[in-house]
Specification:
557 residues, globular, metal ion binding, 10-stranded mixed sheet, 17 strands, HAD-like_sf, alpha/beta
């Protein structure tokens, strides 16, 4: 009898515990669902700024850089000192497609195509044999949803089957953007090339024309390269600088400030002198060469920075002819071609930490200088300004805030067992994917941001962080910083660290001001004077704090 009573008690206990567990799980699930509704409403209904807005014209640091230590400033020309209008992309596209039709006998229908912005992005990789354009993250993972053959999206299943997953080895990706079957489009000149590659591929697909994807890539590359190497692009742009060059009213002020501070300034470009002269004359005036201590054209970068030891040659700028005299020193006011970095260092005695070289190509301009010679480096990327404007937008900030909250909810949902929780999990994960796609499409509907996937940096940004101490959208943004400014990288929490809070400077200033106002002095007038002086100082940071502390003063006061 005792045995049966024990069994009965144990059975009742099991049922009670099981029922309590089920009740607890249902309660937790209901509470989490109510929390979801409340947080979603709160996240998406906010109208005020959700986070501090970034400066689209700021300079951003990957590595600490003290400008006071920089005595020598060097620059690339194209897309660094000189910025181009979007009309240049159309020009490259049109001449490349004409080359395909006339020289390589591609279908005449291609002549009806035109360049369309947004079809390409800097930093994309191409699987050459498959003809797949894709975006990789900093861990060599293919970002699913950003893989295209022509205009056709490649499904996640097909990508995973082709590569046995999403992660690519270093042998496939390469270290500096190129292997036998993988090519990375790194500079902004590649945007029309990507667009033409997609258009031609899609044309062949739509018209059932058999083709090898690698042949199309090689032909499009040949067409674009021919337009550059033949000198035709420079001839067209050089004759009509107003159509293709952007005016930059700040460039002269920037170079003048460096000159007045006794900084040495040099130019290293692959472009021919006559072309640089046309562009610089348009941007800076006839006496533009006075700004530069050393001018080197037709440098053949990146070979200039590598093992190649071609000697410097002086050119006669009047008839564009090379001198036969050996160059033993580099003189102000003269122009040189070819050469190599080893001779440049030997003749100038410039030391690595004293030199800041600024260019737009992270491999061709910056990699060797950073890795082998210890020069400080800066990257000019026009996309920075464009993307920061999107990041600052209310639509993006609301989307990202809700994504972060949704991820937090999913993390808590994962520990609740049961079929109801599993069903809810599928719903929330699907919503998370939709929100990720929404945030991506704000940048580019095909490839998203140049600099990040949803949670980690892109492969392009990883290379940028490796080879550039600082980066910005326009070289003239340096005008906003004094010449002794120190650029500090942001402290980023590692995966095993707590996220360190960034203080709200306005709140700290307000608390400090209120604390100051509580001090009692012998004379009220002295305290008022102190408050006014303190508010004058605060006004440099945030005028709204001054208005709050001194509400009775007029705007003029």
């Amino acid at each position: 009898m005792l045995f049966h009573r024990t069994q009965y008690a144990q059975g009742i206990s099991k049922i009670f515990i099981q029922q309590r567990r089920i009740y607890t799980e249902i309660y937790q699930l209901e509470e989490l669902q109510r929390l979801y509704d409340l947080l979603k409403h709160e996240s998406l209904s906010k109208t005020h700024s959700l986070s501090k807005k970034m400066d689209p014209n700021g300079i951003f640091s990957n590595n600490e850089l003290n400008l006071q230590k920089i005595q020598v400033y060097g620059f690339d020309f194209d897309y660094t000192l000189a910025r181009y209008k979007s009309s240049l992309h159309s020009l490259i596209y049109d001449h490349a497609k004409e080359f395909l039709v006339k020289n390589l006998k591609y279908p005449d229908d291609l002549m009806n195509f035109c360049f369309r912005p947004g079809m390409g992005a800097r930093g994309l990789h191409l699987d050459i044999k498959r003809g797949w354009l894709m975006k990789l993250d900093s861990y060599h993972n293919i970002q699913l949803g950003t893989v295209y053959r022509g205009m056709n999206a490649i499904s996640a299943e097909e990508v995973i089957a082709a590569h046995n997953g999403t992660k690519l080895s270093i042998d496939i990706v390469g270290y500096l953007g190129k292997t036998s079957n993988m090519f990375q489009f790194v500079d902004i000149f590649s945007i029309p090339e990507i667009t033409l590659l997609r258009d031609v591929t899609q044309y062949f697909i739509d018209n059932n024309i058999p083709f090898g994807s690698e042949y199309v890539f090689y032909d499009v590359t040949e067409a674009v390269t021919a337009f550059h190497i033949s000198g035709m692009m420079h001839q067209i742009v050089g004759k009509d600088v107003k159509t293709y060059f952007e005016e930059n009213n700040r460039l002269k002020s920037f170079l003048q400030r460096l000159h007045d501070a006794n900084k040495q300034i040099f130019l290293i470009t692959n472009s021919a002198y006559w072309y640089v002269n046309r562009g610089m004359t348009y941007l800076l005036g006839e006496n533009w060469r006075d700004f530069f201590d050393v001018i080197i054209c037709q440098a053949r970068k990146p070979s200039f920075f590598g093992a190649e030891q071609r000697p410097f040659r002086e050119i006669d700028v009047d008839n564009n002819s090379k001198s036969w005299n050996r160059v033993n020193k580099l003189e102000h006011g003269k122009v040189y071609v070819e050469g190599n970095l080893a001779d440049l260092i030997e003749m100038t005695h410039w030391k690595g930490n004293d030199v800041l070289y600024i260019g737009d190509h992270i491999y061709g301009d910056l990699a060797d200088l950073f890795l082998k010679y210890g020069w400080r480096t800066g990257a000019i990327l026009e996309e920075v300004e464009e993307e920061i404007n999107i990041i600052n937008s209310e639509s993006f900030q609301k989307t990202i805030q809700w994504l972060n909250v949704l991820q937090w909810l999913i993390n808590h949902l994962q520990i609740i067992p049961g079929p109801e929780a599993d069903a809810l999990m599928k719903t929330w994960v699907a919503e998370r994917e939709d929100e990720k796609a929404k945030s991506r499409d704000l940048f580019n509907p095909y490839f998203g941001s140049v600099f990040r996937t949803h949670t980690v940096p892109t492969y392009f940004h990883r290379r940028l962080a490796r080879f550039a101490d600082v980066y910005t959208s326009n070289v003239c943004n340096f005008l906003s910083y004094p010449l002794d400014y120190i650029f500090f990288p942001r402290r980023v929490a590692l995966a095993h660290e707590n996220v360190l809070p960034t203080p709200d400077i306005n709140l700290l200033l307000m608390d400090t001001a209120h604390h100051a106002m509580r001090f009692e002095t012998a004379h009220v007038e002295e305290n008022d004077l102190f408050i006014i002086i303190f508010c004058t100082y605060l006004n440099r940071f945030n005028v709204n704090i001054t208005r709050t502390l001194l509400p009775n003063l007029s705007e003029d006061e």
